[in-house]
């Protein structure tokens, strides 16, 4: 595939916290690749925003002018739609979409708008059969991201897609999903998974990956587990960065709310979230980007070749 592309990596529940070795795993985890992208700094509240040579770093507002800790459903919906969902429904909401959030997502998202414009879009996560069974039975409902994908008429990938190399498991490597692998097939190493992620993204104009384990560990894990998780992600990033052509597209990494950066409690935080934009055209993509509602319109402008004037300016930052 030729032309611009975006690989959008969504890290659930990651905020910018204090330089606190006792409670913030980002202060001490082995993350040489992420640190290199940030000019040998760590992603902390005190890390200055700006351009660091290959990546642009933006401390991004997830609160969107609404009091209280941001929540998953409304925050993810804001990322996906470009609308201030918490403001529209009058509150932060999560973890799963309520009727109001679901209606907003179904009305239109970056997935549906890009697909309607003839672009190829996909969620690269594979889901086990038990997930589809639970959805069909009503025991489980879609979170905002698979809801946006299915509402756009796009399929969710299955264990068969994972086996065939068309998708990745939620942990990137497949180590946590042994029943999905053909007999004798070993999981990817994290570096291999990063290279595979780059190859899969090359098949689409807009490829999205949801890494929800960061939020899970933030709610339930230990500091050591969090540091190990971040070290694994950093190794994935190593393989991805080595395989990625900065001239051909962008990697966008962001989150919906804080959590993992403050393990002294098990709740979401009020912290801003990190956004990293990697690639040759990172400055143009990031212009005016300050909050979660700016990510979808920036993605659409970049992929559809619209100037900022033609597409309209980014929404105002909430007060």
Summarize the structure.
The protein is an alpha/beta fold.
Describe the fold and architecture.
- This protein has 319 residues and is of the alpha/beta class.
- The chain has helices at 32-37, 72-81, 85-89, 99-107, 110-116, 129-137, 144-151, 159-163, 190-201, 213-220, 223-243, 282-286, 295-304, 308-311, and strands at 5-11, 50-51, 55-60, 121-123, 206-211, 249-254, 273-278.
- Helix 2 packs parallel to helix 4, helix 4 (99-107) packs across helix 7 and helix 10 (213-220) runs antiparallel to helix 11 (223-243).
- The longest helix has 21 residues, at 223-243.
- The protein is globular.
- The N and C termini lie far apart (41 Å).
- 50% of the residues are buried.
- Residues 307-315 have low confidence and may be disordered.
Shape: globular
Beta-strand percent range: 5-15%
Total strands: the figure is: 7
Number of domains: 1
- Residue ranges: pLDDT <50 for 5 or more in a row? 307-315
- Order of strands in the sheet with most strands: 2-3-7-6-1-5-4
Please give the structural blueprint.
Layout: E1 5-11, H1 32-37, E2 50-51, E3 55-60, H2 72-81, H3 85-89, H4 99-107, H5 110-116, E4 121-123, H6 129-137, H7 144-151, H8 159-163, H9 190-201, E5 206-211, H10 213-220, H11 223-243, E6 249-254, E7 273-278, H12 282-286, H13 295-304, H14 308-311
Parallel strand pairs: 1-5, 1-6, 4-5
Antiparallel strand pairs: 2-3, 3-7, 6-7
């Amino acid at each position: 595939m030729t032309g611009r592309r975006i690989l959008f990596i969504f890290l659930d529940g990651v905020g910018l916290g204090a330089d606190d070795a006792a409670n913030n795993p980002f202060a001490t985890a082995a993350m040489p690749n992420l640190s290199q992208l940030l000019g040998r700094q760590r992603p902390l509240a005190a890390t200055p925003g700006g351009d660091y040579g290959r990546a642009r770093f933006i401390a991004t507002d997830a609160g969107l002018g609404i009091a209280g800790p941001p929540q998953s459903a409304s925050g993810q919906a804001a990322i996906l739609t470009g609308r201030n969902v918490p403001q529209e429904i009058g509150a932060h909401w999560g973890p799963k979409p309520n009727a109001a959030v679901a209606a907003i997502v179904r009305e239109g998202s970056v997935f549906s708008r890009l697909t309607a414009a003839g672009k190829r879009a996909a969620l690269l996560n594979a889901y086990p059969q038990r997930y589809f069974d639970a959805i069909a039975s009503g025991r489980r409902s879609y979170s905002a991201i698979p809801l946006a994908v299915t509402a756009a008429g796009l399929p969710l990938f299955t264990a068969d897609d994972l086996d065939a190399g068309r998708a990745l498991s939620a942990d990137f490597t497949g180590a946590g999903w042994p029943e999905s692998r053909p007999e004798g097939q070993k999981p990817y190493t994290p570096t291999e998974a990063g290279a595979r992620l780059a190859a899969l993204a090359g098949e689409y104009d807009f490829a999205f990956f949801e890494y929800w384990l960061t939020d899970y560990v933030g709610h339930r894990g230990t500091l050591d587990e969090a540091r190990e998780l971040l070290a694994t992600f950093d190794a994935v990033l190593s393989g991805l960065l080595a395989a990625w052509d900065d001239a051909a597209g962008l990697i966008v990494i962001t989150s919906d709310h804080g959590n993992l950066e403050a393990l002294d409690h098990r709740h979401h935080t009020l912290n801003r979230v990190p956004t990293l934009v990697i690639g040759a055209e990172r400055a143009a993509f990031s212009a005016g980007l300050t909050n979660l509602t700016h990510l979808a319109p920036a993605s659409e402008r970049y992929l559809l070749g619209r100037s900022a004037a033609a597409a309209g300016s980014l929404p105002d930052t909430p007060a």
